[in-house]
Write a structure and sequence with these properties.
Layout: H1 2-11, H2 18-23, E1 31-33, H3 58-69, H4 75-97, H5 120-140, H6 154-171, H7 178-190, E2 201-203, H8 219-222, E3 225-227, H9 229-238, H10 242-246, H11 251-255, H12 275-283, E4 303-306, H13 308-320, H14 328-344, H15 360-364, H16 379-393, H17 403-409, H18 440-443, H19 445-456
Antiparallel strand pairs: 1-3, 2-4
Helix pairs in contact: 3-4, 4-5, 4-6, 5-6, 6-7, 6-13, 13-14, 13-16
Amino acid sequence: MLATQVLKDTYRFWNPNPSDFTSGNLFNKHIAMLETNPNPGQYYYSYWPYGSFGAYSRLTDLQYMTQYAEGSKFESSYKGLQLFMKAWFGFSATLDMGDVPYSEAGMATEGITQPKYDKQADVFAEILSDLQKAEADFAQGTNFDGDIMYGGDVTKWRKLCNAMQLKVIQTMSKQATSEQKARFAAIVNAGNLMTGNDDNFKLVYSDNPNATYPMYNGEERRQNTGVTQLVVNALKNLNDRRLFYFAEPAQAQIDGGLTESDWDAYVGAPSSMAAEQLALNNADGDYSLLNKRYVAFMDNDPMLYFTYSEQCFIIAEAIEEGWVSGDAQQYYQNGVKAQLEYYMNLPHTADYVHGMAIDQNYIDNYFTGAAAYATSGTKEDRLHQIWTQRWLIDFFQGNGGNYPQFLRTGYPVYPLNPSTSLNPDDPTVYPKRWMYPTDEQTKNPVNYQKAIDEQYNGYDGINQVPWYLK
């Protein structure tokens, strides 16, 4: 079915093998490669520093999908899916590059082969409009076939459409209008949102050889994959047992007499250290490697694209910023609890968590010390707590989702060493975007040139600042 193919092509990891999957996890500083040759993704560059409009080719299939459904009881549902997917593609593209085609995207069959680049502000606005329309279509629809994400459950798709609107508005928080903030509050107050982990938008792996976890059978790669100092220290600070689900103890600490359940046996790798030194230190057993469970099962951890937890943290931040009324502490706690419950109930963990399993008693007593919501601290203190927990959701997910949030908030602070950064234009700054696909210069040259002239003074560079970050 067209719906199945589009969803599979969109949400499966782009090249599901251990080498590429680890590379795809480097930008958000959850893991570090411990190899002599530096991986560009660890040092703020890429083997391919370009964005892509490839997903837009699926818009034609989505149009055919809705045409085939016309007159059937599934018509509204497939219309909703078409609009949601276009919004998803546009959101990804605009965060990657800046101004992008949107209003004229996917219209080649109507003769538009050189679509205009819409201003990023307009792209965000149209994405929000399409998500709102998609939610209305799903509300009119019935459960449908071909859906590998939600099993065709229109109720869950409705909730996701609303939650995604919150994410889109908050992602452009530096530029959000008063009307958009009011819309954010209206969506929260209407309450038709995710209510728990059952609503998580995720890709589930299986023991089907065509649908297995990308890191499966990647032991050789795992032995050169460290959990970062940023992650290990954050989890230690919170007394957060996810550490034992994510990592192995450092061999040097075990050799020194510590046990696998000892917090001090876990040592993170400094992701900005020179690759040669990281490799040498790894040979000495200095760092905690990725947990062995990640390579042991074909049907391993699902890839989380949007979770109830993230929704909670989005709303908690908005309450702190005065966008909507509510109890930020409750949203923060609900978000954390949901993530802890997710790992507590995750299969294939029993023999891999080093005697430090997450259970209900642990969750009930989690919010102490640094994990307790800083009600007597500053707003910045509380936002840092929210942003840290939101960042931890994406540990080894391969979805790349948190980097725009880091660019927006600056927290947690990603390590940057100008002497090891591979950023070719300025090693002292974080890249803000990818360059436009090279073939745009021949396929759509006038609109391409207009976009870089108007946004970036004619230079299509990775450190140029797109509208949503200004």
